[in-house]
Amino acid sequence: MGTLPAGDEAIAPANPSPRPWPFRPVRLAELARKAGRLAGWPDLLFPPACESCGELVEENTNLRTLCPDCRQRIHLVCRPHCPTCGYPFFGEVEEGRLCPHCVELSPRFGEGKTLALLHGPLRPLLLALKYRAGFHVLGALEDLARRHPELPDFLAGAILVPVPLHARKERERGFNQAVLLAGIVSRVGGGRPVLPLLERTRDTPTQTRLDRRQRQRNLKNAFAIRKGVRFDPTLRHVLVDDVFTTGSTLNACATVLRRAGLKHVDVLTFGHG
Questions:
Q1: How confident is the model at residue 5 (pLDDT cuts 50, 70, 90)?
Q2: Which of 25, 164, 237, 267 is the most exposed place for a label (fewest CB within 10 A)?
Q3: For the whole model, what pTM was predicted?
Q4: Rounded CA gap, 104 and 199, in Å?
Q5: CB–CB of 262/237 below 8 Å?
Q6: C-alpha R_g of the chain
Q7: pLDDT over threshold 90, residue 232
Q8: Is the CB of residue 180 less than 8 Å from the CB of residue 108?
Q9: Of residues 5 and 230, which shows the higher confidence score?
């Protein structure tokens, strides 16, 4: 048997005619059904669990990070509550009652509003967001804000001012949780404007283990008006943060705003405790 010539003179055997591709039109409805069957596969490998109790969250639940029982256990704070920090008054309310949480606070802001008590299911949601970049909990936090019956009226006419992080800490964390929470409040309030009016000028140590007086000293001259930001001092501005603990951070921010000429400053937090 002869051999084929080498090099450029090699002659390849003729290819048979290709078979026609077994193409058939696929309807969009069929594609949608197939996509729907595949969409839930991550839940098979990583079933959604409640951020608070750890129980599996049912598929028909709108919130994938909070089970219905824990959702109902969040204590929304409505009136009567402390007009300064928003902590609820339990039992019979006496006129001029002092709140133990802010009795030593000399507030530079007007009204304080908190959406819920921090204990229980709300705490792990805010901790997951703040320290683990848990953006998956934002839906549950927005659900909380939308369920609060007094929030729309509180936000009427407000300009939202997130409490700032120092630039170093924000770079390390990758985000400022107060900005994300202000975005939620803005949507719930029908598109209230968010104004980054403040900046943190001193990189202060964490305040987790500090008492009220230590926090006040730690925050001295820690905030300033952001350069180049224009504002109307006659409008109502609402500081937004995640938690009201002693009020030191919010009060330090309010002090800077009042010194800048703002006449009406209130505060809003998602949790109190």
A1: very low
A2: 25
A3: 0.80
A4: 26
A5: yes
A6: 28
A7: yes
A8: no
A9: 230
Query: Could you read off the pLDDT of 116-138 as tens digits, one per residue?
Result: 999 999 999 999 999 999 999 99
How many angstroms separate the CA atoms of 57 and 65, rounded? 7
Q: What is the side-by-side order of every strand in the sheet holding 236-244?
A: 112-117, 264-272, 236-244, 158-162
Least confident of 145-154, 177-186, 215-224: 215-224
What span, in angstroms and rounded, lies between the C-alpha atoms of 139 and 65? 8
Q: How far apart are CA 235 and CA 265, in angstroms?
A: 9
Top-tier CATH class for 76-91+102-116+150-272 = alpha beta
CA distances from 95 to 8, 80, 92, 98 (A): 103, 11, 10, 9
CA distance 266 to 257: 11
Spell out the residues 6+ positions from residue 258 whose beta carbon is closer than 8 angstroms to its own.
Answer: 108, 265
Helix (H, G, I), strand (E, B) or coil at 225: strand
DSSP state of 65: S
| Cβ neighbours of 204 (radius 10 Å) | 20
Token readout for 2 is: 């002869």
How many angstroms separate the CA atoms of 210 and 245, rounded?
A: 11
- Helix axis angle for 138-147 and 177-188, nearest 10°, is 40
The helix/strand/coil state of 239 is: strand
- Range 164-190 average pLDDT: 96
CA distance 73 to 68: 9
What is the greatest pairwise CA distance in the chain? Answer: 114
Please give the structure tokens belonging to residue 77.
């704070």
With the C-alpha atoms ordered 85, 86, 91, 96, is the resulting torsion angle positive or negative? positive
Question: Pseudo-torsion of CA 211, 131, 189, 83, nearest 10°?
Answer: -10
